[in-house]
């Protein structure tokens, strides 16, 4: 097992006796009381500049969750559940599971750094390519935060540093076209959450897809070939001919999904006016959900589930169907997002009472009026 690091400043904890343990979850460790307080967001203004150079994980928001979840599955704690470790000389560093992690569980939460200067040099210095410029390092390691799924947002398209965010720990995750984990931006805590896409064994490397198949990818009509080209151009990744992404069924799913997305977009260009149009729309949503279920990250279903809900609740006959879409959507988000996330809370109140949605029974109301 590798050395312990402070969960806030990432410094190595060399003398175990001096380790400060979070009293809430009793899992997370710090080098000092200062670092613990900072990770909880208890920061005096005078400390702010030093703080920005560190890499907290907004632990004040997550601590109570870890305490609950650790008792069952043991997730999200660096040094106990996962660690950054040397994979092999070719791959370099990666993230390795220290405990079995169940499908759908959060694996880790990381901060997002958006400022890069001499104060944060210690965060960027160890990143690959080792002797490259800061821009080159960010191009390789940063994630875009424009949308909440971090799907196809492109940190390479904008030269401004604001377009970049760096998750100092999770940027160590290596790529896999058929990965055991995914990542998602949690807007409430502004952290990057890594979650398991399937059961992960102890000692297994945790990998993510740098270009996962999401609704944004389908909408942009990205072909499997274009995706591989981008993996090559931006990360130097070459897929061998036996890679998952070359499998015939995967290529077929992606091609069909892109067509279906175009069809759904066309159908939703205006609110489907007749009941039969709305049924056609819902059928297309169902077809899409069925198609991408096994090949795409669960978050890629979110847009389709939401659209399905919004259309279904317009007709009394389809309300149960709409609630079923929303129930699935809530489950996808609840597995990743912080429980206090505004969008998640909104889904939950809609589940309790779908009639608070402005389009609820839109057509029934029109008819009676
Ligand atoms: Zn520290
Ligand atoms: Zn804690
Ligand atoms: Zn591949």
Automatic annotation (TrEMBL):
Residues 80-211 form the SET domain. Signal peptide: none annotated. It comes from the Eukaryota. The keyword Transmembrane helix does not apply. Pfam families: SET (PF00856), zf-MYND (PF01753). InterPro entries: SET_dom, SET_dom_sf, SET_domain_protein, Znf_MYND. Keywords: Metal-binding, Zinc, Zinc-finger. Gene3D superfamilies: 1.10.220.160, 6.10.140.2220, SET domain (2.170.270.10). One of its GO terms (molecular function) is zinc ion binding. This is SET domain-containing protein. It comes from Chytriomyces confervae.
């Amino acid at each position: 097992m590798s050395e312990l690091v402070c969960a806030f400043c990432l410094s190595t904890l060399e003398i175990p006796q001096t380790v400060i343990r979070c009293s809430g979850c009793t899992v997370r460790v710090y080098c000092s009381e200062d670092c613990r307080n900072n990770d909880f967001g208890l920061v005096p203004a005078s400390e702010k500049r030093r703080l920005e150079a560190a890499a907290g994980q907004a632990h004040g928001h997550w601590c109570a969750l870890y305490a609950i979840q650790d008792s069952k599955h043991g997730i999200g704690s660096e040094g106990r559940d996962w660690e950054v470790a040397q994979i092999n000389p070719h791959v370099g560093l990666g993230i390795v599971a220290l405990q079995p992690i169940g499908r759908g569980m959060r694996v880790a939460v990381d901060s997002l750094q958006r400022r890069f200067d001499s104060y944060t040099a210690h965060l960027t210095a160890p990143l690959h390519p080792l002797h490259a410029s800061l821009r080159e390092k960010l191009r390789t390691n940063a994630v875009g935060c424009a949308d909440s799924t971090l799907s196809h947002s492109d940190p390479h398209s904008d030269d401004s540093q604001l377009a970049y965010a760096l998750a100092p720990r999770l940027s160590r995750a290596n790529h896999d076209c058929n990965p055991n984990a995914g990542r998602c931006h949690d807007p409430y805590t502004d952290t990057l959450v890594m979650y398991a896409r399937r059961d992960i064994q102890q000692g297994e490397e945790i990998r993510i897809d740098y270009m996962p198949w999401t609704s944004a990818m389908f909408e942009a009509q990205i072909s499997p070939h274009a995706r591989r080209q981008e993996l090559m151009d931006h990360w130097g990744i070459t897929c061998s001919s036996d890679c998952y992404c070359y499998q015939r069924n995967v290529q077929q799913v992606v091609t069909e999904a892109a067509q279906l997305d175009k069809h759904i977009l066309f159908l939703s260009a205006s609110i489907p006016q007749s009941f039969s149009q709305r049924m056609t729309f819902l059928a297309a949503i169902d077809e899409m959900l069925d198609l991408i279920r096994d090949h795409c990250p669960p978050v890629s279903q979110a847009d389709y589930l939401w659209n399905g809900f919004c259309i279904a609740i317009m007709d009394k006959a389809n309300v149960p169907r709409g609630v079923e879409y929303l129930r699935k959507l809530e489950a996808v988000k609840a597995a990743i997002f912080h429980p206090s996330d505004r969008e998640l809370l909104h889904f939950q109140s809609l589940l309790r009472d779908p009639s608070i949605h402005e389009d609820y029974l839109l057509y029934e109301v029109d008819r009676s009026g």
